[in-house]
Design a protein that fits this description.
By secondary structure, this protein is an alpha+beta fold. It is built from seven helices and 18 strands. The chain folds into three domains: 83 residues, Pseudouridine synthase, CATH 3.30.2350; 134 residues, 2-Layer Sandwich (Pseudouridine synthase), CATH 3.30.2350; 56 residues, PUA domain (Archaeosine Trna-guanine Transglycosylase, Chain: A, domain 4), CATH 2.30.130.
Length: 286
């Protein structure tokens, strides 16, 4: 059994909860996901089965689109509504809509973002959230992230509803927090829904309980964004042994190596030696 599923994660579930249900539904332990969603968040979780779990890093590299609500006026230790309020804004006049729109646009592009203390980032080999829950003060260093676009959906103070398309490693919780800092009111993320990962849309997702072998998409469909290189019969066998195959001189980066029937055999890196070197082989040679 191999392939991918688009799952609509319910509120209150961890991403691992989804994996556990899919394992039971499919009768296999070889299940993983690509891109953690916090328990308070809902939306699209790409779940991978069998050898397709090796494709997780390529799915995680896709852009992600979110609908979110930043609640102005209160800061929490988790940067979301599940945390303890650590600061209140004592003002009375909410920022005007023009200031909110301008503040949102300030996040677009390459920027430095401080990850939430309650996150999966490692500090001296320990998850940041584990340290924070143990009462250890955690101040993570800002990291480079990319926000492709931001748009205001609705402004009904204290709630700012917005959409964001972001690159890998970007925390929308942190965007909500920083929006509050920018506006001088403080803020936390009160709602979060992932609506897309790359070309995958939550409208096509199913509930975890509906996972079945029939719902699996083939591995090639899991990485539709990768350029294709069709293998000959001899090359297919060579790739099955992990050997490189020649490519056109102008081809560089990550590519999919497929059989003539469209099956994904491997994902490879096209290098300066004009060869594609397999980094993940889904169909090893016998």
């Amino acid at each position: 059994m191999i392939g991918g599923l688009l799952i609509d994660k319910p509120v209150g579930w961890t991403s691992h909860d989804v994996v556990a249900v899919v394992r039971r539904q499919l009768g296999t332990r070889s299940v993983g996901h690509a891109g953690t969603l916090d328990p308070f968040a809902t939306g699209l979780l790409v779940v991978l089965v069998g050898r397709a779990t090796r494709l997780a890093r390529f799915v995680e590299a896709m852009t992600k689109r979110y609908e979110a609500v930043a609640r102005l006026g209160a800061v929490t230790d988790t940067d979301d509504l599940t945390g303890t309020v650590t600061a209140h804004w004592d003002g009375t006049d909410w920022p005007p809509v023009g200031a909110v729109t301008e503040a949102l646009q300030a996040f677009v592009g390459e920027t430095r973002q401080r990850p939430p203390a309650y996150s999966a980032k490692h500090v001296d080999g320990v998850r940041s959230h584990a340290l924070a829950r143990a009462g250890v003060a955690v101040e993570l260093e800002p990291v480079q992230v990319r926000v492709h676009d931001m748009a205001l959906r609705d402004y009904s103070p204290p709630d700012v509803s917005f959409t964001a398309t972001v690159g890998r490693g970007t925390y929308v919780r942190a965007i909500a927090r920083d929006l509050g800092e920018h506006l001088g009111t403080g803020a936390h993320c009160a709602a979060l829904r992932r609506t897309a990962t790359g070309g995958f849309d939550v409208a096509d997702a199913i509930a975890p309980q509906d996972a079945s072998a029939l719902a699996l998409m083939p591995p090639a469909a899991v990485v539709p964004h990768l350029p294709r290189r069709v293998l000959t019969a001899d090359e297919l066998r060579a790739v099955g042994f992990g050997r490189a195959v020649p490519i056109e001189p102008q081809v560089r980066g990550t590519i999919a190596l497929v059989a003539d029937d469209g099956r994904l055999i491997a994902v490879a890196e096209a290098r300066d030696d004009d060869h594609a070197h397999p980094v993940v082989v889904l169909e090893p040679a016998a």
